């Protein structure tokens, strides 16, 4: 189980310290502005012919200082947020990479993508806006109250009751935001997941006459989501409006108390100026609750994702040189509770398994699913003791089910091989395998390939897997039942390439490719 990255990890403490320091600067600027305002109003009240220069300069510069420090604090906050989100993305990807392929396949792709988009927005908003605003409120509100106390203790006592009531209302309302955020996230996530899955099927859904049904389903789900979103927005905006509601009452109290206590117009004007400066951190505190509730809902889901089981770690051993033998004893597969099979080094065997069992076996051999301890041995070495590199270099699958990222045909052909190869050499390899008419009849290696090879045919994807295998020279080759559907020139190319190697080969039971060499004689040794 991976732990959630900490917001205040060592690398992020410095940006937060800078945010705190810059917020203190804002507080000092606000205090200087309040006292400069008092001095100027007192000079006006006294009828001075010329206003004092120093308070005017202080008042003018205070706005510049507050604005500059606020911008700098926002930049540092964004730096903190982006660093936090990067660690979260990396943790989620690393965890998914360590999960079994069957567990990843069981997850809805829409929900998995939501982790990297919607949830990351909630994390970034909390780290970049919520935490800095919480820090600002914790600094500026006490600083403003201290300024009011210095101006007049009576004015401070007048401000405290409405301020306290406003904070209590914000706190009470903020507690109700969390369940609304959870409900909104669940409904938004369901729509995002279903739409991500249905978009690729949209033409087929239309052909099957389901367009109106799917649109009705979308409207129904969106209606419920909109209701929840409006309820959350209504409460969040109400909390944000509380400081404005309190501002008018507090201003009246300042004027009444100031008149009753006989305070000067300068002091009252400075107090009203401080009250205006108090509104911003109060409003920020109200938005903090909304951001925290969104972060909390996303954090619960991400923590649950990081708690899902992972594959056991790879071993550290490698394989000896030369052809590899394979022995499987009483392996539990779908429909085959005790599958056993033995292959001598350089032998080929046709396994009598169904498609699901074959896929499960290949995933175990390739290290994509958990490896049973001691039940599979390669040249006498248990599969679970082999390193990741040993499995990647020595086992390869030929077929259309080949991992492929978006990019050029060149990238698809060498993806995962760890080999850097010149274009001319790569073209020669394709021609040597007699696959040039299948893959690139015009020799164009810059041809664009979509993720997963969706724009390629089954035969083209199979041909890509063969080119990769010829570059890696694996010592165990896995060929599944889906290989049989490839074009004859592709299956023949695979046969020719295998005939010239000492590779140990496992064939799917539906294959009808004859094996004529003595090295690769077909035998059926699977017991289930």
From TrEMBL:
PANTHER family: ATP-BINDING CASSETTE SUB-FAMILY B (PTHR24221), ATP-BINDING CASSETTE SUB-FAMILY B MEMBER 6 (PTHR24221:SF654). One of its GO terms (cellular component) is plasma membrane. Gene3D superfamilies: ABC transporter type 1, transmembrane domain (1.20.1560.10), P-loop containing nucleotide triphosphate hydrolases (3.40.50.300). The chain crosses the membrane at residues 21-41, 53-73, 134-152, 158-178, 235-257. It holds the Pfam family ABC_membrane. This is ATP-binding cassette subfamily B protein/ATP-binding cassette subfamily C protein CydC. It is found in: Cell membrane. SUPFAM superfamilies: ABC transporter transmembrane region, P-loop containing nucleoside triphosphate hydrolases. One of its GO terms (molecular function) is ATP binding. InterPro entries: ABC1_TM_dom, ABC1_TM_sf, P-loop_NTPase, Type_1_exporter. Keywords: ATP-binding, Membrane, Nucleotide-binding, Transmembrane, Transmembrane helix. Residues 19-294 form the ABC transmembrane type-1 domain. It is a multi-pass membrane protein. The keyword DNA-binding does not apply.
